[in-house]
Amino acid sequence: MDVDRLTTVIEDFNTIFIRLPSVRRFNFSTLSVLHTLDRNGPLRLTDLLPTEQLKQPALTSLVAKLEQDGLLERRPDPSDGRASLISLTSAGQEIVHSRHAHRVAKLTALVDQLTPEERAVLAGSVDVLHRLTELAEDSP
């Protein structure tokens, strides 16, 4: 397998994929935080740090801005009253879900242009890509 080519293809696809939604544009860090919280539920800021490529002061500032914008909320951590859990508000969830729906629609239009054979190969790749994601999440 040509892993160098695979890497380049994934990078190129990601460049296009992240730009598919044309609804409410946000920077990468904002979207990453919103998507992480959508998938992983409420988190402490310290638990959010490893998933984001930001230093703690920058993440703290971003979370404060998103909270001010009504996209995130903080509430006391039931297991430790000194800590806070950060979660999406309904407005934050709406952004994530509308971007996903828009991406599905745009990707569907692209997939519809593939040949039946190409669609079959792509369908067979979904489980493999999911497994790669699991492996990446499990590795340090």
UniProtKB/TrEMBL annotation:
Pfam families for this protein: MarR (PF01047)
GO molecular function: DNA binding; DNA-binding transcription factor activity
Domain HTH marR-type: 1-131
Coiled coil regions, renumbered to chain: none
Domain of life: Bacteria
UniProt keyword terms in alphabetical order: DNA-binding, Transcription, Transcription regulation
Membrane-spanning residues: none
Keyword Transcription assigned: yes
UniProt-recorded name of the protein: DNA-binding MarR family transcriptional regulator
